Amino acid sequence: MAFSLDNFLHECRLAAGSQQDVRAIVERAVSDRAAVVRELGEPVTDDIKVLFQSDALTVLNVIWPPRVIVTPHDHTLWAVIGIYSGREDNIFWRQLPGAERRRIEAVGATSISDGDTLALSDDVIHSVINPLQRLTGAIHVYGGDVLGRPCTTWDPETLFERPGNGDSFSRGRPDDAPSR
User: Fold this and answer.
1) What angle do CA 117, 110, 120 make, to 5 degrees?
2) Is the pTM of this model over 0.85?
3) Could you give the CA distance from residue 130 to residue 90 in angstroms, rounded to a whole number?
4) What are 25-37's pLDDT values in tens digits?
5) What is the mean pLDDT of residues 127-148?
6) How many CA atoms lie within 13 A of 165 on its CB side?
7) Which residues contact 161 (CB under 8 A, 6 or more apart)?
8) What is the pLDDT of residue 165?
9) What's the whole-number average pLDDT of the chain?
10) Separation CA 161–CA 36 (nearest Å)
11) What are the strands, taking DSSP E only, across 54-166?
12) Domains and CATH numbers, the chain
């Protein structure tokens, strides 16, 4: 069955309480890139479009610009990311034990590309890179209202938590991610 945005959102709403079920829905969706592009359009400019938002679930169509780097941040919600065009590299971080000012260190990384999905738990700190010279299109599903929720960011040079954190993700990108 070809991807239908209405059906996809309906299925995600029904499965909102289960990250595993949402992941299966996203996996099925991005496995047919052509159908997703027919519904959402070919990525032509960087943008973050809200496809659905409630207290229990947020679904975004994220178009990352070429070579963008989003600094380390958290969402405090589980997430499922499905790539339908391009690639997204994620670096995973953890807080150093006993760190005075919440300093982090890298603990792993993964790359996802066309047709791949990635599930993130609610305690993940990650940074995101689109390493390509073209746009990357992804469906992001969060287990809550990610747009109205504060997130924490970390300084990319010092790796210390930034003062004055608590900005929401509503601008589409954490604090200093380039908009273009």
Assistant:
1) 55
2) yes
3) 9
4) 999 999 999 999 9
5) 96
6) 18
7) 101, 102, 103, 104, 152, 153, 154, 155
8) 53
9) 90
10) 37
11) 58-64, 69-74, 79-85, 87-95, 104-113, 117-120, 125-129, 136-142
12) 5-169 (2.60.120.10)
